[in-house]
Amino acid sequence: MAYVPVAIVFLLYFSSIPIAFALFAATLSYFTFINTGMPVDLVLQRFITSTASFPLLAIPFFIMAGAIMNYAGISSKLMKMADVLTGHMVGGLAQVNVVLSTLMGGISGSANADAAMQCKILVPEMEKRGFNRAFSAAITAASSSIAPVIPPGINLIIYALIANVSVGRMFVAGYVPGLLMCLALMVTVSIISNKRSYKPSREKKATLMEVLLQTKESIWALFLPFGIIMGLRFGMFTPTEAGAIAVLFCTLVGFFVYKELKIQHFPEILKDTIYGTSSVMLIIVAASVFGYYMSWERIPQSITSVLLNVTESKVMMLMVINLLLLFMGMFLEGGAALIIVAPLLVPVVVSLGVDPIHFGIIAIVNIMIGGVTPPFGSMMFTTCTITGVPITDFIREVYPFIIALLVALLLVTYLPGLILFLPNLM
C-alpha cells in the first residue's frame, strides 16, 4: 500500500492530468485513505509552507529577465553574434542554431522556450536556404536541450534546492557540459551537411573587424551570464539577488542601450512571468508534499537499498541511473522529472561517493536528452507542432543528434573532473 501513491501519479499523468495535480492528488489520497494517523490539514499546511523559501525567488526573477530580453532585442543581437562566429561553417544556419541555443542558455533557461523561439526565427530561414524542414526541426529540438544546462537554467536552481547544494556551484558546473553538448552537435551538423551539401549562411569567414564590431554591438547581451557568474564568484550577490540584478540589467539595456524595450511591453512581460512562475512553482510545491509522503514511508532509503543490492560498482550504478533518467525524460517535462527522481537517487549516488553537484549535472543532461527522444519527448512535440513536421520525419532526422548528445553524456558521467573543475575554484 505504501507504493500506491506512486502508481496513482503515473496513472493520472498518463490520463493527461497535469503533473502538479497528479502529485498532490496522490499525496492527499495517501494521507486521507491509507495513512489516517496524520490530519489532512497538516498536509495542506506543508503545501503552503514549502513556498516560503528565499532561494525560490530566483525563479520568477530569471523568468522575468528572459521575458524582458525577448522584447529588448537581446535575442536578435545574440543571433547575429552566432552568425558571425559560425555562419561560414559547413551547415551555416544549422551551426548558428546550435550556437544560439548555447548563448541563449543563460537567458531563456528553458528548453521548450528556446525551441519555440528558434522554430519561429530560424527554421523558416533555414528552409529558404535549402535545409530540409524535418532536419531543421530536429537540430532545433536537439540544440534546445543545451539551454537548461547553461546557467542560470531554472533546473539548476530546482536541483540545488532539492539536493541542498550551492546554487552558485551548480551554475558554474553547467558551463563545461553545455559546451560539450554544443561541440558534439556542431560536429554532427558538419558531417550531415557535408553529405547533403548544405551551404554556409555566409560566403566567407567573418574578418576580425566584423567579429569585433558585432561583439561591440552584442556585448551587453553576452555580459549577462558571465556577469552573473563573476558576481557569484566574488561574493557580490547571492543567486537569488542575481535574478533581481538580471531583471534590472536587462531593463536598463533594453531601454537605454538597444532602445527596443517600451513601456507597453511590460503587461506582456508580467503575463509571461506569472504564467512561467506559477506553472513551475505549482510543480515544486506539489512535489514537496509528495516528498513528504516519500520520507514518511522511507521510500528513498528503500530504493537506495535495492539499487545497492543490484551492484556496488559506481560505473555500473551510474549506467543504470542514466538509463532510468533517460526513460523518465521521455515521459516527463524536465523540471517535473527532476523533482521526482532527485530525492530518490541523490542518497544512492552519495553513498557511492559521487559528488551531488556532479550528479545534478548528469541528471539534468540526461533528462534534457530524454526530452528530445521519441516517443514522448516534450521538445519533439514543441518543434513538430510549431513547424508542422510529421513526427515520423522528425524521428528519422533526430537520431544522429541524440547519439551525439549521448556521447557528451558519457563524458559528463565518467569524467567528473571536467564538471567539478570550475566549481572547485569557487
The computed structural class is: mainly alpha
Number of helices, where a helix is a run of at least 4 consecutive DSSP H or I residues: 22
The N- and C-terminal alpha carbons lie at a distance of 46 Å
Please give the share of residues in helix: over 70%
| Strand percent estimate | under 5%
Summarize the main sheet.
Answer: none
Based on CA atoms alone, the radius of gyration comes out at 22 Å
**Low-confidence runs:** none
How many separate structural domains?
2
* Shape designation: globular
Describe the structure.
The chain has 426 residues and is mostly helical. It folds into two domains: 1-49, no CATH class; 55-425, no CATH class. 76% of the residues lie in helices and 0% in strands. It contains 22 helices and no strands. The chain has helices spanning 4-13, 19-34, 40-49, 58-72, 74-86, 92-104, 111-121, 123-128, 133-144, 154-163, 167-173, 175-196, 208-233, 239-257, 266-296, 299-310, 314-331, 334-351, 356-372, 378-387, 391-414, 416-420. Helix 17 (314-331) crosses helix 19. The relative contact order is 0.15. The mean pLDDT is 81.
